[in-house]
Amino acid sequence: EAERILPMIPRVCSTMIGKAVRSAAANLVNQAARSGRPVDPAKVYIKACWSTMGPMGNMKRMLPAPQGRAYTFKRKVCHLTVTVSDERVATKRK
Questions:
Q1: What does pTM read for this prediction?
Q2: DSSP letters along 12-81, please?
Q3: Which CATH number covers residue 42?
Q4: Which strand (E) or helix (H) includes residue 94?
Q5: Do the domain assignments include residue 90?
């Protein structure tokens, strides 16, 4: 369901979250196949998903400017963690 909804969200982060969800699901299917307990990729659910501040919060970068100057800007960085499971987790929707 998340793979269907995420591309329709008009935010830049939705593509990155979609990649992380697909990667986590593929890792679960691969690990389960190696352990002899195959998992159907359609039955994978998102257990938890959160974002935390990256290594430096905001990385300071320089942008070349006219007359030999340099403009500074901050590149925002974060860590994205996605936990998936093959069991459905009961949660309350608000």
A1: 0.71
A2: THHHHHHHHHHHHHHHHHHHHHHTT----GGG-EEEEEEEEEEEEEEEEEEEE-GGG-EEEEEEEEEEEE
A3: 3.90.470.10
A4: none
A5: no
What are the phi and psi torsion angles at 84 (to 5°)?
-120, 160
When divided into structural domains, the chain yields a total of 1
User: Looking at the domain assignment, is residue 94 inside a domain?
Assistant: no
Could you tell me the end-to-end alpha-carbon distance of the chain, in angstroms, rounded to an integer? Answer: 18
Tens-place pLDDT, residues 21-31 = 999 999 999 98
Query: Which tokens hold the place of 78?
Result: 């974060």
Q: What is the pLDDT of residues 1-20, one digit of tens each?
A: 788 888 888 888 888 888 99
Contact (Cβ atoms closer than 8 angstroms) between residue 26 and residue 62: no
- Contact between residue 14 and residue 74 where contact means Cβ atoms under 8 Å apart: no
